[in-house]
Specification:
Layout lengths: L3 H21 L6 H12 L4 E5 L2 H15 L4 E5 H4 L12 E5 L6 H13 L3 E5 L5 H5 L2 E4 L15 H20 L4 H7 L3 H8 L2 H5 L6 E3 L4 H11 L3 E6 L2 E7 H10 L8 H4 L1 E2 L3 E3 L4 H11 L3 E6 L2 E7 H7 L3
Parallel strand pairs: 1-2, 1-3, 3-4, 4-5, 6-7, 10-11
Antiparallel strand pairs: 7-8, 8-9, 11-12
Amino acid sequence: MKTDTSIIALAKQTITIESDAIANLINFIDDSFESSVKLIHNSKGRVIVTGIGKSAIIANKIVATFNSTGTPAIFMHAADAIHGDLGNVQKDDVIICISNSGNTPEIKVLVPLIKNYGNKIIAITGNVSSFLGTEADYVLNSFIEKEACPNNLAPTTSTTAQLVIGDALAVCLLNLNDFSSKDFAKYHPGGALGKKLYLRVSDIVEKNDKPEVSVNSSVKDVIIEISEKRLGATAVIDNQKIVGIITDGDIRRMLKNNDDFSTLTAADIMSSNPKTIEADAMAVDALETMESNNISQILAEKDDSYAGIVHIHDLIKEGIF
């Protein structure tokens, strides 16, 4: 029976084996790697990444990383390639072929066909002396000492090494292409990640009610405005300028400190000089301001005039927080 101790030990051993193998890849980053990056960068075509078995799965992930960081790429399964999918290959495309052994039957059939097309081949292989290693134009060495699998059979460390090589290529190309956070947002418009990069304060306040009272508004009017607009606060405005904010907390403190508030106005209970943010600012900046000041709302301004309120719940709803 396997004990918890043996499970933990094996998990740690797996991570150690793979992390050591990844660290050793540094020794294989050479002129061939640099030439491969420059070849892809200067190419007028796409990157076609191919492989078979577990390497094909890694190829798919590398393609996804390339596409999301500004390097156009497509996946081509090595087995399907020799049964018709070679039609995907255009004259300016660069081929990345992934195979740990470099000697699988499909690779041996595919590589000569690609070379007949005149396309350049970049190999990612753990065996630089293999068929793939000797036939490719550029070789990226992903050699590992052993798989993390106790039987040294299941692709584990080897596929991790292939993935890391692919990431290194993508990051170098990203840098050469001056790929910015704005570019990243264009390719990742969905989900919380995209929203952090493109969602602006104005996008939020336009959806919300716009609670506001004047400096002379009664406490009753202030309470009604906060309750109806349901943002937990209201701006205090004078000639369209923000002069203060009144929150639920201000109302509670006012009730605690005053038995009679019939003569009080908004100016008497507001917090002056509230935190504000430009409507054109990023929503994530509003979050940072709220967190650093331990507040739940922030007032937005546009052209020095009151534009609305952003509540922390808005950012939670949008997936920013």
